[in-house]
Each structure stands twice: as structure tokens, then as C-alpha cells.
Amino acid sequence: MIVKAVRAVLLALVALFFLFPIFWVLLMSVMTNQDILRSPPSLIFEPTLENYVALISGQLDTSVGTLEVAYMRNLMNSLILGVGSVLLSLLLGVPAAYAFARFRFRLGENIAFTLLSFRFAPPLLVLLPLLFYFQQLGLYDTYFGLIWVYQLITLPLILWIVRGYFEDISEDIEHAYRLDGHSWLATFLRIAIPLARPGIAAAALLAFIFAWNNFIFALILGSSDVQPVTVGALAFITASGINYGQIAAALVLSVVPTLILALFAQRYLVEGLSLGAVKG
Amino acid sequence: MASLSLDKVSKIYGPRRQAGVLAVRDLTMRIDDGEIVGLLGSSGCGKTSTLRMIAGFESVTQGEIRIGDRRLNDLPPAQRGVAMAFEGYALYPPLRIEDNIAFGLLRARMPKAEVARKVADVARLLEIENILGSYPSTLSGGQQQRVSLARALVRGADLHLLDEPMSQLEPQLRAILRARIKDYLIEHKMTTVFVTHDQTEAIALADRIAIMEAGELQQLASPEDLKEKPANLFVASFVGEPPMNLFPAEVDSNNAIQVINRADEKAFSIDLDGAGDAAAQILHPGRKIHLGIRPHRIRVGPVGVNDGANAVARGMLLSNQWLGDQSHLGINVGGCFMIAVSDRDVALRTDEAVDVSLPFGALHVFDRDDERALLHGMSPAEA
Ligand SMILES: Nc1ncnc2c1ncn2[C@@H]1O[C@H](COP(=O)(O)OP(=O)(O)OP(=O)(O)O)[C@@H](O)[C@H]1O
Ligand SMILES: [Mg+2]
Predict the structure, then answer these.
(1) Which residues of chain B have a CB within 8 Å of the CB of A106?
(2) Which atom in ligand 1 lies closest to the alpha carbon of residue B41?
(3) May I ask the CATH class of domain B4-230?
(4) Option in B76, B89, B93 nearest A195 (CB)
(5) Whose CA is nearest to atom 30 of ligand 1?
(6) In this predicted complex, what is the ipTM?
(7) Which CATH number describes the domain made up of B245-380?
(8) Where in chain A is the domain with CATH 1.10.3720.10?
(9) Across-strand partners of B266?
(10) Long-range contacts of A6-15 (CB under 8 A, 24+ apart)
(11) pTM of the model
């Protein structure tokens, strides 16, 4: 009885600790800058949607005049970059993961590990040379270029999680299917992939969130035309001050897609990660 | 429905041009159309590897595999005309049992009604009718194994490979199914290779049994021949329950076999007078051999009772167990421990002296160096 009560209290505390910042940001997003900066802070204020209106219309009112922001565009860019890079990673990573899981070939382990090691290097280390390459190759400030570097984030993730998943599937199920008269390609598409689907979904979701949260690549390798929300939020730090209310509203908007995705795929995420990644 | 032949087939696992695991070595055998062959051997001796090469999941490192006169080596599994029941069952998880069994048939465009009839047939045969509507994940190991077996049997392929098809079943059910499966295989004239660890199962099901050890085929012969004419020391010690009594021995200058015990002393001797020309030729004085004696052929009696056997040795009875249908007698003969089996309840007391009769017909002689069989019951082994 007591144990139960204590556990409930502890859980509530933990939840509060993690949820409070989100709650605060939510509050801030419906407050004016004056309300936010009032000292001492007060919970009594008049909620307003002006921050959201400003973001969606792209007109930022500051003390020195109106400022154009492309926040909706940033949001769109985030979506394009996230979805694009995850799709490309799936296209490249799932067959590769299958190959690494099923076939022993020379240097196979080394190649797989090299791909993983992309995750170890701090991005700053490679950014400057990358910038030069990108400018030379005409990849600077393009979706394609960014999706390309985002592979450093998404590809290893998908490769390693999905590989573990393929390894868990009994090879003999595929063998049985092949004896029933199918080619290895048909076996891969109709047996291996469907059986690994929870793992693939989990990996894709995780990769999407990682891509969504990336900041530094887009900051350096693109202009505002292709930059995602993480970089776009910088625009609210203006010469005339910091628009906390709008930043908060921007944050709320930027969290919504990943939140929806995560809630929607929660089952896959937990199941996929616990089954696949542990062993891989 | 076709014959299968393997010609000097070897399998080495591991990277090319590096020392790998030698799983199968120079395996040559021919299995006739409609024949049922059992693969018997200790764990890790290469049985599954052999089946996987035949089915096409593993490349053949060396040698050639044929079904009928089609060379299989480079054909994909789909084109080999082989059905297989896997050691790990390998059922399709999203399909119901019924659909699992029918899958290969539907794929081969067999009419639905006929498929349904075949599935019902094989389900009745293997007693899995009550689970046809379930999914694999809800079944026990033994149930899954029977489904996997059903899926292979129903295919009517040129060749059926069954990897330990009944290892998960309880002995009673296994005995029942064994008989039914044999009838089914014969009725449908199915060429079959099955793997088992159970000698009784191998003997009951197979026309011929292949004994493998350390990747090499030791002998491929009928169950009777494996018992009566084991090709080498390994087969002699592997086949039979209880196993053959085997002792190191040497032929002395008085034309007798001197059997040697653990302490390297002479235990007892067998006079070779009247053993015949073949024996005289092969068992020349000084030859080092292993002597094998099947427990079922040894007769044990009170001291002084000789029922006309060629050789009699005096020993001490150590144990006498009546198992309900046969007696197992443990006897110490001059330091050699020997098991004898009698189909009667023997009225002898332990710790008493007994006479052990060893007819020539019960003796098997193997070369001490290369361990090949030389004589079976005093006739030459290669005959
Ligand atoms: N994929 C593989 N890679 C490397 N070595 C392997 C592989 N598969 C099997 N082996 C080795 O080959 C040998 C034979 O294995 P195999 O599976 O054929 O044995 P088995 O006779 O079927 O044994 P069991 O009765 O336990 O099923 C073993 O030493 C095993 O370790
Ligand atoms: Mg095996």
C-alpha cells in the first residue's frame, strides 16, 4: 500500500520534472513578451494567439518595425529534409542491413563498422571541408545536398537497428520460401522485409527524429531557403531583443509533428528497439 | 521422385582460400528412386550441412550433386525440386497452419480442392487436424515440428529432406507416427533423406542408413548389414544397443587371438583352429587387431557348461539385470568388461564364476591401425 503510494508520488515527480518545461513553453507561447518578462512572473495574464498568428503569417512585429520570418517555410523544409533523408536511408540501408545480416563477405564487418563510426565523429570536425566540397559541387544550399549529409545521421541508425532485426529472423523461413519456388529477391521483399517491419518502422521513426533535431549541418550548409525549424528559430533573436513568445510558439509548432509521430508509432518504437537493437 | 547422387562432395565453411571449418568431406552416395535413407551421426558431424547443400542454401565447395541426371550445383533452390522439413521448423509466422502446409502447393498452381484434400490427409496422418486454424506462434515445439513435417511431405517433390523430423515428440507418438510416415512415403514412392539421432527411428524408417562422423561417410548400408557387417571400428561402436564389445587384441604364434585388457595384460584367448582359410590368411601371427563381439551373440552359462562354441572364456558375473524382455549381463573376463544380452531371464548370481561362450560367428575383427573391418564371423569383410 505504502509502496504503491510512494511509487505514485515518485512517478508524478518525475513526470512533473520532465513535463514542466514543456508546460512552461506552452504557456509562454500564448503570452505576450511583456507578460513573459514581467517580474515577478505571474500566472495571471490574458492568453493570446498573436505569436502563432505572427508565425503563420510570417510578419514579426518588433519595437523597430515588422520583420519577415519564413517560419512556415522552415517547417516545410524540416519535413522535406526529414522525410527525404529517412526515405533515402531506408532505400540504401535496408538492403545493406540485409546483406550484412545474411552474407559473410570480405571486409563486411569493417564496412558496417565504418558506417557506424560516422556517428562518432563530431560534425564540426567535417563541416568546413564539407562546406568547400558543397560549394564546388553545387550542393550548397540545396535540399539534395542536405539530405545527402543527413545520411551521416540516419543511415547508420537504420542500418544497425534493422540489421539486428534481420539477424533475429530465422534464415530457414526464407529457405522454406525459396524451396517453394521463389527467387531470393522475392524472398527478401515478401518474407524478410515484412517480418522485420516493426524494426524498420522503429528505426525509421528514430532516424526521422534525429534528422528533425539536427541543427549544425543546415546552419552551415544551407541558407534560409532550405533551413529547417531548428535553424529558423534563430530568426527570433532580433536586433531589438529576443521574442520569447514567438520562440515558444515556434517550438510548440516544431515539436508537434514528431510528437504525433512518436505517439502514433509508440508501440512499434518500444517493441522494435527492444527486440532488434539489443541483439544487433 | 528421382534418384539422388552425391559425388565426392565437400563443404568448407569460412572465407575463401583460408582454413575454414571442414563440415563435410568427400561424401559419395547414391540414393535410388523411392528409397528412404537415414542420416545418423553424432552432433556436428555434418548432417544438416549435407542437406543444406542438396537443397541449395549452401554452396558446394567441391564435388557434384545430381537429382536424376540434372546437375544441381548451380541451380537456385527454387529449381531443384526439393522439399525440406527444417530442424528449426521455419513456419511462416503470418500464415495459419493450414495455409502454411498448403503454401507450396498453391504456389505450384494445384487446384484448390485437391490442395484441401491433401492438407486434410497429411493433417490426419500427423494428428494436427485440431490446430489447422491456429498461428505458428501459439503452438508447442512438437506441434510446430509436425506442421513443418507436413509441409514437406505434402509437396510431392522429387526429393524430400527431413532434418530431425520427430525429435520433439514423445516416444509413444513418435512410434505411431514413424509407422504411418513410412507407409505414406512408400505409398507415394517418395525419395527421402532424413536425419535422426535415434537409432530405433533410423532402423524403423530407413531402407538404408548412412553413418557419418566428423564430416565423413562411414558406411551406407541396410540396418542388418550395419549390425552384421560394420565397415569399421566407428560404425561397430556406434550402431547397436547396447554397443558392441570391443577389445584390443593380437594374434600370437600359437594361432590364437590374445585379447588384451586395460592394464595391457592378456585377458583371455580364442583358439583359431577351425576358423577357416580366410581367417588363417588375415590373422597371421603378430597382427594387431581390435576384436568385436555383439552382446546378443554371447552366451553365458555356469562353469563347465559348453554348448559347442568355438571359444570359451572364464569370467566373473558383475551384474544381471532383467529389463522385462531381455537380460543385460555384465561380466569381467580377465580384466575385460563385457556386456552380454540374453532374451531369457538368466538364473545366475552375481559375483560367481561363469563361462562365456564366443562362437566364431559372433566375432568381428578390425585392423588396429586403419580401423577397417577385416573379418565378420571369420569371413572376409569385403565380400
Ligand atoms: N554457417 C556455418 N558457418 C561455419 N561453420 C558452420 C556453419 N554451419 C555449420 N558449421 C559447422 O559445420 C559442422 C557441421 O555442422 P552441421 O550443422 O552440419 O552438423 P549436424 O550434423 O547437423 O549436427 P546436429 O546433429 O547438432 O544438428 C559443425 O562443426 C558446425 O560448427
Ligand atoms: Mg543438424
Answers:
(1) 15
(2) 21
(3) alpha beta
(4) B93
(5) B44
(6) 0.83
(7) 2.40.50.140
(8) 71-274
(9) B260
(10) none
(11) 0.82
